[in-house]
Amino acid sequence: MKRFIIAFIAAYVFMFLWGWLLNGVLLKDVYAETPNLWRSQSEMMSLFHWIIIGQALVIFAFVMIYASGFAGGGVAAGIRLGILLEIAAIGMRLAIYAVQPFPEKLILYGSVSGLIEMVIVGAIVGAIYKPASVRTP
Amino acid sequence: MNWKKFFTAFFAAFIFLFVFGFLWYATLMRGAHEEVPALFRTKPDFPWLILGHIVMAFFFTMLCVRFVPAGGAGASAALGILVGLVYAGPHVISLAVEPLTTKILCGWIAGGVIQFAIAGALVGAIYKPSSPTTS
After folding, report:
1. Which of B82, B116, B134 to mutate to test the interface with A (most CBs of A within 10 A)?
2. What is the pLDDT, as a whole number, of residue B82?
3. Has residue B132 been placed in a domain?
4. I want to staple A61 with a disulfide (CB 3.0 to 4.6 A). Which of A136, B20, B70, B85 is the partner?
5. What residues of A are in contact with residue B14 (Cβ under 8 Å)?
6. pLDDT in tens, A62-107
7. What pTM, to 2 d.p., does this model score?
8. Where is pLDDT greater, at B130 or B116?
9. Is A38 on the interface with B (CB under 8 A)?
């Protein structure tokens, strides 16, 4: 349980900082190209708790998958889990692009950064959490 | 890896994800989506929609097969629920950054969890390695 919480906090802190750097700084100009798709800055700040809850949910479910023994153990297993989850998420992103008018480069940058993010999240969780029993042989 | 069973499971997952997506998001949630027309295209871009579902189904099947090697609907459905929760996170974040309604958010979260739970059960039921060498 202790390692679960430490893995959760470490991965969460990384995701929060990564999300801020990517969406709040690097992609700021890309978001500005489609202002009709986004809330105003003040609205976003008033709903900021949903960003924290959403990121916590991603990390909690990720660590749960890992802790359940589905992924095996170790850094490599964590990275494998992150890669498979994120590539499937890229498929979801493409399906969302088909119905929502996001700029192409936002989908591209989001997918590349998402892959890097989940690889690092997987490595962090794999390095910290050691499952007591693994389901894989 | 038993590739024949893998591709059968992938095909079943793809068909299910696509049909469920049509019924849940395009039919049941149509009214909710129409409340915020600026956020959606007037018509879906089908090549991207199909490609997205193929990628999603392929790698979700890979995830189930790789991480639940013994197969079985129950264990794969449990994995599917957790995967659905991982993907629910970005939807929750969307509420803060896009002018979505809570009705849309709840529909997307419930739809995603149900969708991946059933898809996991399907994959687990189809992909059952016959020999212990399949790892």
Report:
1. B82
2. 95
3. no
4. B85
5. none
6. 999 998 877 677 899 999 999 999 999 999 999 999 999 999 999 9
7. 0.90
8. B116
9. yes
Give the integer Cα–Cα distance in Å for B22 and A111. Answer: 24
Q: Is residue B102 part of a domain?
A: yes
Residue A132 — very low, low, confident or very high, per pLDDT cuts 50/70/90?
A: low
Q: How far apart are CA A12 and CA A23, in angstroms?
A: 16
Q: End-to-end CA distance of chain A, in Å?
A: 23
pLDDT of B128 reads 80
Q: Are the Cβ atoms of A60 and B85 closer than 8 angstroms?
A: yes
**3-state SS assignment for residue A12:** helix
Residue B20's domain spans which residues?
A: 3-45+54-126
3-state secondary structure of A71: coil
**Is residue B71, in this structure, part of any structural domain at all?**
yes
CB B96 within 8 Å of CB B40: no
Provide the token pair at B38: 């600026």
Compute how many other C-beta atoms are within 10 angstroms of the C-beta atom of residue B74.
Answer: 12
Residue B135 lies in a domain: no
Domain count, chain B: 1
What does the alpha-carbon distance between residue B33 and residue B27 come to, in Å, rounded to a whole number? 10
Q: List all residues 6 or more positions away from B42 whose beta carbon is below 8 Å from its beta carbon.
A: none
pLDDT of residue B134: 45
B/e letters for A90-114, b = 16+ CB within 10 Å, e = fewer, are: bbbbbbbbbbbebeeebbebbbebb
Which among B46, B53, B89 is the nearest to A54, CB-wise? Answer: B89
State the pLDDT at residue A68.
Answer: 83
pLDDT in tens, B91-102: 999 999 999 999
Q: What is the Cα–Cα distance from B30 to B28, expressed in whole angstroms?
A: 6
